[in-house]
């Protein structure tokens, strides 16, 4: 829980971006938090996942062959 509290404490709003009647404010992170997961392309590059068409999760595109969680 403290990880979340610390992360929210570092957030700041960026400069407003306007398009027609829409205004968006980017939410920026003042620091970096080490994620406890890998994106699929990172996992494939690190041999933590295998590319294949026969996955447990249809359409996921890869099978986790390591101990790291995957963001699919």
Description of the structure:
The protein has 2 helices and 8 strands. The protein is of the alpha+beta class and 72 residues long. The chain folds into 2 domains: 1-32, no CATH class; 35-72, no CATH class. The strands form 4 sheets. The protein has a two-stranded antiparallel ribbon. A two-stranded antiparallel ribbon has the order 2-3. A two-stranded parallel ribbon has the order 5-8. The longest helix has 8 residues, at 2-9. The mean pLDDT is 77.
The number of distinct structural domains comes to: 2
Mean pLDDT: 77
By oligomeric state, this entry counts as: single chain
Number of separate strands: 8
Radius of gyration: 18 Å
How is the topology of this model organized?
Layout: H1 2-9, E1 11-13, E2 17-19, E3 22-24, E4 27-29, E5 37-39, H2 40-45, E6 49-51, E7 62-64, E8 69-71
Question: What would you say about this model in short?
Answer:
Helices cover 19% and strands 33% of the residues. The chain is an alpha+beta fold and 72 residues long. It has two domains: 1-32, no CATH class; 35-72, no CATH class.
Keywords, separated by commas or semicolons:
72 residues, alpha+beta, 2 domains, two-stranded antiparallel sheet, 19% helix
